[in-house]
Fold:
Amino acid sequence: MHDELNEIIKKALDEDIKTGDITTMACLSQSVEAEGTLLIKQDGVIAGLEVAAAVFNFVDPTLLFETYKKDGDEVKEGEIAGKVTGKAASILTAERTVLNILQRMSGIATFAKTFQDKVKHTKAKIIDTRKTAPGLRYLDKLAVKLGGCGNHRIGLYDMYLIKDNHIEAAGSLSAAVHACKEHKSKTGKNYKIEVECSSIKQVEEAIAEGVDIIMLDNFKTSEMEKAVKLINGRCKVEASGMVNLDTVKAIAETGVDYISVGALTHSVKAMDISLKIKNIE
Structure:
C-alpha cells in the first residue's frame, strides 16, 4: 500500500480511537459477530472503497470486506456498495473513519463528474488545485481522478508555477521564467513551467519566454478567446478563476486545454452513505 495512504489511515484512526473505543468496549463482547452494510443514500459516484477496505484491515485483519461496486462507479440511492462481516466491536470502531473517507471522497468524485460532464463536448479537461483538506491531499486528488477529472500539480515540488507574487518578487515575468529555467537546468528535473497571466500583455510575454503552460487568471471569456488564438497551440492553456457550473461550459468553448476548479476539493459536500449493522446469530 502507498506509504502516504498508510500514514493517513493511521492518523485518522488514532485521532478517533486514541486509548480505545470506550462505548463499544463497555457494551460489546469480542465474541459478538455482525454484518455491516454500506448503504448509498443519494445518487453519485462512489470513491474510497479500496481505502475503506484498508481501514477495516488496520482495525482488525480478521474482518471480511466485500464490495459490490468499484471506485469510480456511478451509484443510485438505495444500492449497496459493500458488506463487512466479523467482530461487531471492530466494525463499530472502524465505522466513523470509513464513512468520513467514503463520504468525502464520493462527494468530491460526484462533484468532479458533474463538472466534466458539462464540458465533454470540448477538448477541455477539468483539473483540481492545491486547495485540499490539510493532510488529505492524496485522498482528495485520488477522488478527483475517480470522478473523471485530472490532477494539476500535486504540491510545490512537482511543477514550476509562477504566480503574481513570484513575478512581483522576481521583478518581472521574464526574470521569474529565466530563474525557473536556470533552476531546472541545475537540478536536472524535467518539471514543466507554468505562468499565471492576468492580461494579454503578460500572455505575449509568456509566449516569448517559451513556457509550457499559460494560466489565464480571471479572464472574461471574450479575452480568453483572444488569448487562445494568440497562443495558437504554442503551449497548453489553463483557465482559472470565476469557474462554476454555470460558467464552465462557456469557458471550455473558448478552446482552453485545462480548467482548474478549486471548489472540487475546498467546497465539496459529502455524499450521504451509511453503515448499518446487524448481529449474526
